[in-house]
Design brief:
The protein folds into three domains: 273 residues, PAS domain (Beta-Lactamase, 2-Layer Sandwich); 113 residues, no CATH class; 162 residues, Heat Shock Protein 90 (2-Layer Sandwich), CATH 3.30.565. The chain is built from 17 helices and 17 strands. The two termini are 43 Å apart.
Amino acid sequence: MAVKYLIKLTGTITNKKVKIKLLGIYLVVTVIPILLIGLYLNYSMRDVVLNNTINEVNANVDKLEMRLNTILDRAINISDQIYISNDLKKVLGQEYKNNLEIYNAYAAYPIFTNYLRYYNEIENIRFYMTKEMITNSQFVYADQETRNQDWYQNAVERQGRISWEYMQDKWTENAYLTLTRSVYGDDRELLGVLAIEISPNNLTAISKSELFDVFVSLDNKKIVHSKDPSYLGQEPSFIKKADIQEESIIYDTEFKEEKYKIYLRSFKPSKTLENQIQITALIPIDDVIKDSKTVLYNGFLIVMICLIISITLIGLFIRSFDKRIHLLRNAMNNIAKGNFTIKERSLGGDEIGQAYDDLVVTADSIKQLINEVYIHKINEEQWKRRQKESEFKMLASQINPHFLYNTLEMIRMKALISKDQEVARSVMLLSQMMRSSLEVSDQPILLESEINLIKTYLEIQKMRFGERVNFSIDIECDIQDYYIFPLLLQPVVENAIIHGIDQEMEASMVKIKVFKTADNLVIEVRDNGVGIASDALILLKKGLDESEDNTRHSSGIGMNNVNKRIKLYYGEAYGVDIESDHGIGTVVTLFLPSKKGPDSDAEITNH
């Protein structure tokens, strides 16, 4: 097919006039490549500028993360010193007779004041006491209102582990990024909650040199630092919720009606298990590529001017070439008709001019030869004259066509040899642009293949997360030659991994069990994740039973899809069941027919 098309294309091009061929070659060899190269350079330069900017932002975020960790480590070290301090426990555990003794005890414990004096990273240090004592700016009685607040309860629940909050200071009414930590006495009695507030001036100092907007957020819930104070305390809507577990990601988004590249870096402060800090740099794409667009625009103008000049010159050349070819062709037609009087013209010193000059000489020679033969033979006898005229005519009939054929063949071969090489090259370039496409099959596959795919997926997750991911696959029946439709099991296993990993568990376990009952093949996927709350479980099961997909949660959408496919392919007697205990784990069970082979699946599908 391709050969026939090539032959047809070659024949079409061969039949075109030379000026059309020259113009086509110029477009293919010059104009089109320049335009393609220009487009390539445009996008390449844009990508290079963006990549260089992203690399610069990456380096700046590295420095910002290091400086931020230094500030947070300062607060963590101070909290460690206070946490193990027996002096603090003595101040809070001692019984006092009057307020004066309490004031004296506070004065004898200058640790908070010393830390504030020597470390400008710390804005305030406050201890919220469970024991009702006189309150000052550093020792604050935790009344019932304070104890009911989320940050206080979170600190108590974590039993001495470090936690980070963005909370309002009761005294200054300003919000700070705050380290909270519950402190206990020797008898494990709760003495209170330590709150170390990070100085916002230090956060501003480490990011003031950044060229782009930089936001620091806590657990993707609240912005704790921004050049624009109006964003403080707000939710960072420009951060993709699904990506906060990644250490560093880059993606495109729209913010304030402009297109931005988002560079997101997530990390955990030292000695912190539950909280994550996100550093987000917003890179305005239009501002970054503005200079490169100006350069490209100027370059485009220069290229267009050059193309216009070159097209004008090639047009003039083609016009001159066509005119000279036309004159040469007319002269040859006159000779073919017997008119050997050709006007001498100067057609240049190239091959066309030389061919025209040779044609003039040839015509003159033929004309002179005819005249000489005619004069010499006119006085001879009639029969000799007739014989000579006959011989001359025979000679002329042999010389003229043969000479003209050689002349035409010489010109044609020069043109063909020169022009066919370019055409062949163009076809070769065109043939190199063919491509193929892939179609994903929706036919049943072996359950064993699906299990192997899931096993590979789980092994990849284990390589990624290490000991935090564990799994087991227990096949208690013969699954050889058993076929299922693709992508029934994978969404279930992915949800099990999400429940186990995304909740910051120390070790998650996913168990897959395949067994048979009297009528069904059962695939059970069990995880030890956080489970599903009873209200959410009711909604999830309701979503599985409804014909329309009203489930908004991503895992619910996946389960609904799997359930729909099973019921569609195998019938209403089969489907998905979900059971979960909040805080313990979730069990997702797939009920499939116990028949084997792809033919049985096809019968069920047709049903």
